[in-house]
Design goal:
Strand order of the largest sheet: 1-2
Radius of gyration: 22 Å
Order of helices and strands: HHEHHHHHHHHHHHEHHHHHEEH
Strand content: under 5%
Oligomer: single chain
Low-confidence stretches: 156-163
Distance between the termini: 36 Å
Length: 445
C-alpha cells in the first residue's frame, strides 16, 4: 500500500497536530469506554493518560519503527471486573488492577525472551498468510456489530443521563459522517484526503448538534442526539489508579493474588495471538515486516511494559488498536512522529477537562459512521493477505473457511473467568487445521 508519509517521514508541525488529532479521535471512544464499563470510580481521563504513556513506552521499545497507538484492551474487561468482585474494597480493587497488569505484562516479557532466542520463523510457519489473513479479517468483522449498532445511538457516556434519541435521527447523523469520510477519502485533494475522519466527524457532529438544538427548543426528546449535560460533571483532575491502588496494598492476601493471576494470565496469552495478527496486518500496510524489524520480541516488550505503565495510571492494560491501524491505512500516513504526537496529545488532553468532555459528547452514531470504514479496512486488509494464496487447493480453502465461519459465527469458549474470543478461537482452529492438513500433504508427497 502506497503511503503518503512513511514511518520515518516527518510532516510539518501543523500537519502533525492535525494528523494526531485524527488518530486520537479514532481511538478515543474505545479507550475511554473500558473504564466506563468497569465503573467502580475508574477515571476515563486517567485511562487516556495511561494510553498515551503506554504508547510512548511501546515506541521506545520498538525503536520508533512501529506506527500504532496502544489503547485500553477490551479483552481484559472480565479480568478487571474480577479485581472488584467478591465485595472487595475499591482500594483493593485498584491495587488488583495494577497487580493484574503486571502479571499480564510479565507474560509478554517471558514470551519476548523466548522469541529473542528462538527467532520468529516458527511464528511464520505456525501462522502463514493462509491463517493470519482471514484472522485479521475476523478482527474487523467481529467489530462490525459494534459499528452498525452505534449508527442508531446518541451519546454513549453516562447513559442514565443521556437523552433518548430517535434511532432514525441518529442514523442520519451516522450516514452523514460515513459518506463525508468516503467522499473526502476518494475525491479529496492533498490534506482533505489525509484527514477524512476529522472532516467526517465535524460534519456528523454539526448535524447532530442542529438536531439537538431543535430538540431542546421544541422539547422533542427524539431529536436530542448529543448529551451536552456532560459538561456539568466535568472531571478536571484525573484520578490515577496508583493513588487508590497503593492504599489498597495492605489489604492484599495470597488468595486475592491467586485470583488476579488466574484472571489475567490466561487472557494475556489470548491477546498475544491478536498482537501478532495486528502487527502482521500493519506490516502488510506499511510493507515492512515488523516481526523481524524491530522484531517480535521488541513489539511484545513494548506492548507488555506499556500495559504495565498504562495500568499504573489508568487501570486498563493496553493493546495495539485496530482503529489506529485502520487510520494509518485510510489516511496513508504511517509517520511515527504522528503516533508520538498522538500519545503526547492524549497525555495533555487528560488534564484539559473541556476538551475531553467535548470529545466525550461526540455521539455514538457519529463514531459509528467512522468505525464502519475503520473496521471495514481492517477486514479488507486481512483478505488482501490471502490474495496470493492458492484457494484452488482444498487444503488452503478449508483453513480459510474454518477461520471465517467460526470467527463470523462468534465461536467463543469460557473457562471460568477466562474467555477465548471469537478471534482467538478462529485463530487456534485455523492453526490446528493448517498443521494437520500440512502433515497429510507432506505424507502424500
Amino acid at each position: 500500500m502506497q503511503m503518503t508519509y512513511n514511518v520515518k517521514d516527518k510532516p510539518s508541525f501543523g500537519k502533525t497536530l492535525v494528523f494526531a488529532l485524527q488518530q486520537l479521535l479514532a481511538i478515543l471512544a474505545a479507550t475511554i469506554a473500558v473504564p466506563a464499563i468497569i465503573g467502580n470510580g475508574m477515571s476515563q481521563s486517567a485511562a487516556l493518560f495511561g494510553a498515551g504513556v503506554g504508547t510512548i513506552v511501546y515506541l521506545l521499545f520498538t525503536k520508533f519503527k512501529s506506527p500504532v497507538f496502544l489503547g485500553s484492551s477490551f479483552a481484559f474487561i472480565g479480568s478487571m471486573l474480577a479485581a472488584f468482585a467478591g465485595g472487595v474494597s475499591a482500594q483493593l480493587g485498584f491495587a488488583g488492577l495494577i497487580l493484574g497488569a503486571i502479571f499480564a505484562g510479565l507474560v509478554y516479557v517471558v514470551i519476548a525472551i523466548v522469541v529473542k532466542f528462538a527467532g520468529v520463523k516458527w511464528i511464520n510457519k505456525l501462522m502463514p498468510a493462509v491463517v493470519i489473513g482471514p484472522t485479521v479479517a475476523i478482527i474487523g468483522l467481529s467489530l462490525a456489530g459494534n459499528a452498525v449498532g452505534d449508527l442508531t445511538k446518541g451519546s454513549v457516556l453516562n447513559a442514565d443521563a443521556a437523552p433518548v434519541a430517535s434511532p432514525y435521527v441518529a442514523l442520519i447523523c451516522g450516514l452523514v459522517t460515513l459518506f463525508t469520510v468516503i467522499i473526502c477519502s476518494v475525491y479529496g485533494k492533498k490534506m482533505m484526503k489525509m484527514i477524512p475522519f476529522i472532516i467526517g466527524i465535524c460534519a456528523g457532529y454539526a448535524v447532530a448538534a442542529l438536531f439537538t438544538v431543535i430538540g431542546n427548543a421544541t422539547d422533542n426528546e427524539a431529536l436530542k442526539i448529543i448529551n451536552f449535560g456532560l459538561f456539568e460533571s466535568m472531571q478536571w483532575v484525573p484520578d490515577f489508579t496508583f493513588l487508590s491502588g497503593f492504599k489498597g496494598v495492605k489489604e492484599i492476601t495470597a488468595s486475592y493474588v491467586a485470583t488476579i493471576a488466574v484472571a489475567y494470565v490466561p487472557v494475556a496469552f489470548v491477546v498475544f495471538a491478536e498482537h501478532i495478527a495486528d502487527h502482521k496486518n500493519l506490516s502488510s500496510i506499511i510493507e515492512t515486516e515488523l516481526l523481524e524489524d524491530p522484531g517480535l520480541h521488541r513489539t511484545l516488550l513494548g506492548d507488555g511494559v506499556g500495559s504495565m505503565v498504562g495500568a499504573l495510571f489508568g487501570g486498563c492494560p493496553n493493546t495495539t488498536y485496530g482503529e489506529s491501524v485502520g487510520c494509518v491505512a485510510i489516511s496513508g500516513n504511517a509517520s511515527i512522529v504522528t503516533i508520538l504526537a498522538t500519545a503526547i496529545m492524549a497525555i495533555v488532553a487528560a488534564f484539559v477537562a473541556p476538551f475531553t468532555t467535548f470529545l466525550a459528547t461526540i455521539p455514538s452514531c457519529v463514531m459509528g459512521g467512522v468505525c464502519v470504514t475503520l473496521y471495514g479496512f481492517i477486514a479488507v486488509s486481512g483478505l488482501k493477505m490471502i490474495q496470493k494464496v492458492d484457494l484452488d487447493d482444498n487444503r488452503n480453502l478449508f483453513v480459510v473457511s474454518i477461520i471465517l465461519i467460526c470467527g463470523v459465527g462468534g465461536l467463543t469458549l469460557s473457562f471460568g473467568d477466562v474467555t477465548l474470543t471469537e478471534v482467538a478461537c478462529a485463530l487456534i482452529l485455523g492453526i490446528i487445521a493448517n498443521l494437520a492438513l500440512a502433515e497429510k500433504k507432506d505424507k502424500a508427497e
